[in-house]
Specification:
With 232 residues, the chain is an alpha+beta fold. It is built from six helices and eleven strands. It has a single domain, classed as C8orf32 fold, CATH 3.10.620. Strand 4, helix 5 and strand 5 form a beta-alpha-beta unit.
Length: 232
């Protein structure tokens, strides 16, 4: 009798109580963002984040997420987003800001964390993530996005740029490599592949982020696969 009662009580317990936890995946991402991060597979669930998409978000395949592998390093990004006072921005203003940021010397002061925009401006220097954050801050557009991804599919290093939507069209503002905006719909699928985007409306992942584990490498910060100095 007792054994039947015990089996009945065990049957009432939720299956999840005995389910194995999701495996931990170690990521080692290249360039200025290279680091080892434990990321739960499937942990970034769009339904749990509860963020709305910015205008045109579906065109970029944005998926709201509550966490990214970069969160522990992006205190300056969160501060800039929190303190952003959005205002209208014209294409002329964006082009001017692009030229200013492009003129900054390339210098990486921290391989993991973007510099605060004020430091980048005072020093007139910064790496791709610091320049992009300076541009994002000065652009001051509520729907712009600070982006981490790859400039080219086969590169072993990651890159940072800004996605900006103007008059119904997304533009890539890569002030490290270019002085002018690029229409996002004009680039090939092998270029400017985004992983994660950060903005006033929330944090988002892109489809390519699912393959992040595949870009793991043992390349030291500031080096390429051939051992040459990186350009970003």
């Amino acid at each position: 009798m007792r054994s039947r009662v015990l089996r009945y009580l065990l049957a009432l317990l939720p299956v999840g109580a005995f389910a194995a936890q999701p495996p931990i995946t170690s990521l080692n991402v290249g360039a200025n963002f290279r680091h080892d991060v434990a990321l739960r597979e499937g942990g970034a669930d769009a339904s749990s984040a509860g963020f709305a998409l910015p205008p045109g978000g579906r065109e970029l395949d944005l998926q709201p997420t509550s966490s990214t592998p970069y969160d522990r390093y992006f205190g300056s990004v969160r501060s800039v987003i929190a303190g952003l006072e959005p205002h209208g921005t014209t294409m002329g203003t964006a082009c001017h800001l692009m030229k200013v940021a492009h003129s900054f010397a390339y210098l990486s002061r921290d391989p993991y964390r973007p510099d605060p925009p004020k430091l980048t401006e005072v020093q007139h220097s910064g790496d791709c993530k610091s320049k992009a954050l300076w541009l994002y801050d000065n652009l001051a557009d509520a729907h712009a996005l600070f982006v981490i991804g790859k400039a080219e599919k086969y590169l072993h290093t990651c890159h940072a740029w800004v996605y900006w939507r103007y008059e119904g069209r997304w533009w890539i503002l890569d002030c490290t490599d270019r002085a002018d905006p690029i229409a996002a719909d004009s680039v090939s699928p092998d270029r400017y592949i985004p992983y994660y985007s950060f903005g006033k409306m929330g944090t988002f992942r892109h489809p390519a982020a699912h393959a992040l584990a595949a870009v793991a490498s043992n390349i030291a910060p500031g080096a390429s696969a051939s051992g040459q100095k990186k350009t970003r």
